[in-house]
Here is the input.
Amino acid sequence: MHFPRYFWLLALLLLPVLLLLGNEFAIAYPSHRTKNIAYLKSNTPGFDADRHQLDVYAPRRKPATLQPVVVFVHGGAWNSGSKNIYSFIGRRLAKQGVVAVIINYRLSPQVQVPAMADDCARAVLWATRNIAEFGGDPTRIYVMGHSAGGGLAALLASDDRLFARLGLLKNPVRGAILDDPGGVDMNNYLQKMEYPGDESYLTAFGRDSTVWRRVSPIYYVSATNPPVLVFVGGKTYPGIKSSTARFREELKKAGARFEFTVLPGKKHIPMVLQLFWKNNVIYKDLLRLVRDEKQSAGVLRTPAD
Here is the structure.
């Protein structure tokens, strides 16, 4: 998972522009956005009025029954990104009958990754308590993320302690959709320090290797995990390729429910840009997962290598 410094500078300049254009295409679709909802009370220690916010996208015509919910966690190398540039994902999902929750969370250097994971868990907790008001089913909450957000989404689905600390006896996440996820095995990655600039990640992860392991989803894989869809770009970063390959092997060994799909020719940023278009494979598989209760409870197919 090597993110060169010059790449992030260029990506941060261009990505919001590209996503804004995508939003313009998506905005005419029949959905309703409720924006800037605080998912923490203002008197909560560490409350951040900007970062502890989320937007909800729901079908404009409220269905007769409650619909599945997808909570999307943005990427940005754990130090950048915002829900505001991903409204096209919320609209695309709402267009297809899914209630979408696009969240902010605190970033480095303000906090480190354990606090980011706690923020994301609190956003999911908010959804369990409030999403029915928007037509979402609180018993069918799925998490989704790209890049760093994919790693956080995987952690939400696998580390039950995140929710136990919030007083929940059971993890409410029914499944995860991981789009070129970063950080699934940050312990291994930071132990090696193979690429130039890798030390910069220590701002977000700290120098304690026990923390690196604690926030790496690969160490929580078990047969009892909810089903997970993993999508990896065929031309993504070597670190993401190697860590997701190990993640796949751990899922297989554990007998977990998963699908692992490599999208040939796709680089890291195009893996999220493709979500402009509602007919791409990620949305198709996502909808199959969240709508088919039998599939969600069973063993997902695993494509051949």
